[in-house]
Structures are given as structure tokens and as C-alpha cells.
Amino acid sequence: MTDCRHRPAGLHLLADLHGVAPALLSDAARIDALLREAAQAAGARILHSHFHHFGAGCGVTGVLLLAESHISIHTWPEDGFAAADIFMCGSAQPERALELIEQALQPASRMVKTIERGRL
């Protein structure tokens, strides 16, 4: 029998981070490590990750698959912009993941949309 401990109710954070130093947005290994640290800080369990760098001067796209759902990021160093998508259910705390990401990237401005998922 499958263990289905997590209920669908959770928070989905969509974060637009502007004014980020380009050097912080172009290193796939560094961004992978950052998202892993963010997932752990949120109390999430990492299942798999995949990150892709688009070449010199270009950005990164990546995703962490979590038992609680996912964290993804897309970066545009040429524009100093990162878009992060954090959805976690169960007892995981996506706000903590976003706090850690913001501390590392130090955006000049941010816009975050919070969506409650799976609640009636």
C-alpha cells in the first residue's frame, strides 16, 4: 500500500524577484544548492532535481521535485530577474523557503502572489 501522508491543501507562492545581481542568476550549481537549502529549511523532502544553464551570459531553469510538491526557478541575469514558484503541502513551510531564496539573491524589489491550494 502507498503511503499518502500529505493532503492536497497547501500554499503556492509565485515570486518575481527584480534587481538581482546577474552573477547570482547564472550559476546552475549554485542555484541548485540554494533551492536544496531552501527546501530543507521549509521542512520539505527532496525527491529529484534538474537544472539547466543556457550558456555564457544566459540564465538557468531548474526544478526540485519534493514529496510535498515542487520548487522551480527561471532566471534572466541580463535583466536581473528571477521567477520562483514554490508549492508545498503538508507541514512544509514554503514561506521559509522563499525567505532563504530572497536572503541569498537580495532582490531590489519583489512581488509575491500567494495561492491557497486544495482547500474547500
TrEMBL record:
Subunit structure: Heterotetramer of two alpha and two beta chains arranged as a dimer of alpha/beta heterodimers.
Species for this entry: Massilia horti
Catalytic function, reaction form: S-adenosyl-L-methionine + H(+) = S-adenosyl 3-(methylsulfanyl)propylamine + CO2
InterPro entries listed in its UniProt record: AdoMetDC_C, AdoMetDC_fam_prok, AdoMetDC_N, S-AdoMet_deCO2ase_core, S-AdoMet_deCOase_pro-enz
Known pathway: Amine and polyamine biosynthesis; S-adenosylmethioninamine biosynthesis; S-adenosylmethioninamine from S-adenosyl-L-methionine: step 1/1
Residues where Pyruvic acid (Ser) is found: 69
Cofactor: binding details: Binds 1 pyruvoyl group covalently per subunit.
Entry annotated with the keyword NADP: no
Protein name: S-adenosylmethionine decarboxylase proenzyme
Family: Belongs to the prokaryotic AdoMetDC family. Type 1 subfamily.
Keyword Lyase assigned: yes
Cellular component GO terms, alphabetical: cytosol
Site feature: Cleavage (non-hydrolytic): 68-69
